[in-house]
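Curious: explain these tokens?
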Amino acid sequence: MAKILVIGNEKGGTGKSTTAMHVIVALLRQGHKVASIDLDTRQASLSRYIDNRQDFIKTTGKTIPTPTHTRIHLSELSNKADAEKDETERFEAVLNELKDAHDYIVIDCPGSDRFLSNVAHSYADTLITPMNDSFIDLDLLAHVNGETLEIAEPSCYALMVWEQRKIRAMKKLPPIDWIVMRNRLSTLDARNKRDITEVLDKLSKRLSFRLAPGFGERVVFKELFLQGLTLSDFKEANANMALTMSHVAARQEVRQLLSHLGIQEHP
């Protein structure tokens, strides 16, 4: 049975697809059979990433591992109950088709509150939530008092995850291993950075998630997207890209995330 990794956050622009692709390729290079599912069919960033990877293979003739990829579209049925039933059935059918032939299934969710995304969260063995290092992004996890930094109450996304955890418990499935990764961390020891660290430390205990370092705001991630490559593919990419200190730092960021997931990067 495949292990299911869900990349989710109800806010866009947090690096979900970049995270998903780097995890996918790291697993592939370990020799695992990996399937990927894109639920964000409007932006389809993960699907575009994989399309770019296929184009790279065709134009260069290089052999690099790729996942079995599927996109699941929203239902076109007008009745809400019928549409939700249709989406659930199609999602479960895809999972049933993939789970026995793969070791991992990585699901990229849209940056919005959608029924299909909620269903995917209920199937997550591991949930990875990338967030930009700001109180705007943190507001989806909890409402925080601006004067005291005390947590007033969990917010919309955290409440949704809690509901999906209850659904898993009713199905007698293991609890979700929830990892929150902080993207675009400042290199400066700014007050905002310290304040977010303080709140997230408290919130991790209250909401039962693990904190992981994420990715910096680096041009290399945007450049690699156009080729469909990740930092695990640097041997294939380096013909067109000179290794810089920024690349070295970015590779270390990827290794740290993979370590939190229990994944050893392929040498």
In short: The chain is about 45% helix and 15% strand. The chain has one domain: 3-260.
